[in-house]
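Example record used in the benchmark description.
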Amino acid sequence: MREQDTVSIKPNETTSDGDILGASAGKHWTKKEKLKWMTSLFIGTATLYAARTIMPVCIVSVSQEMGWDKTESGSVLSGFFWGYTMTQFLGGYLSDRIGGDIVLPIAACLWSLIIFWTPQLVYMSTGHHTSLYIMVMSRVALGVCQGFHYPGMTSLISRKVSEQERSFTYSVISSGSMFGTLLVGCIGSLLMEFYGWPLPFYFIGLFGLIWMLYMRYILIPQQAKSLLIVSLNEAQLLESKQIKAEVKPSVPWVTLFTKSAFWSLLIGHYCENNAFYILLSWMPTYFHENFPTAKSWIFNVVPWLVTIPSTIGSGWLADHMIAKGYSVTFVRKTMQTVTFLGTAFFLFLISYVKSYEACLACMALAVACCGFHHSGISVNPQDIAPKHAGSVFGLMNMAGAIPGFIGVYIAGHVLEVTKSWNAVFGQTALVNVFGWIVYTTFGTGKKVV
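Model output (structure tokens):
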């Protein structure tokens, strides 16, 4: 075959005969397929966050039983993010190379087993420091395994969902994080109150294993059957027309690291996650200390209950604005403005209100504003690097996980030394304002690489 007779094609490229090439790599989900995958990934993300947040919900009971102070409790809570940072980039790279649908079930099997055995790990040693170290290491291992989830999910969505539908799809799936946190706050709190803190861990671990088995043996085989038919048609077309498929290029990291838009993505994600992780980890303790008679199932539920509609609604609004002709850049910056300034405002305000109802409202609205992040920076890697969204998101989320162990630990130490929640909320709000300045100045929704 002569070189000039060979044609290079891209996924979803259409020939003169109307055939679609490269569909196995780039074919978008049909409406029915998208609904199935959205539902499954929503449930998976909810279970993931339930496993992640059950320790903050139970930390007061666990720390009292084990004799941990706030600095030691902060070490346990922040240990998760040490591990979470390690695998973000690897998760994105593997997902872009072998597929997020392969990476997600393997990771889910591992983190489900870890969370299931957590209570037994706590009781492995009666020594104060030994039990603390074991608990911290188990949290690190949980973070390592969960670090594959979001990069894998992002890579999958970038390949299987069109640009006009990504904000809503990603927001719906990501709202599973709030739903999972809500369930833990409600059901987990009740299980802990009546049966002790170990039972919620067993329940969540078992449910995670069930979700993994569904993905591995039901959902993925269904997709494989539909792709097999497309792949066979593709192979015949490639052979008959002597066409070769395009080879996926490597990630142009050098180019990315010279772009201010890429750095604004990293910094903005870091700043938003700093607020989110501090609220996620310390909010139950805040209400336990300041309003000891308050029902835990209320303050562990209300903030996440109002965040679900804000997350899904922001996704719909972002896609609607893009469809109406607003630039992607404008839409992403609008979503982040609500996220950064809204969260900062309510964190400042909580320092000036005294009643339980007012504090609960401020906390709920601060967390609800965080939901707009999923239609802004969280989906932005798919805008600036659509072919490498998993890898870029992995690196971005690695930067975003850093405040998980630094910010959460420092918050615990500050509380131990100063006994001041206002100091924690004030510095968190200032970090948000800084993130807003950086992202609105240098961020973009245009393709960079």
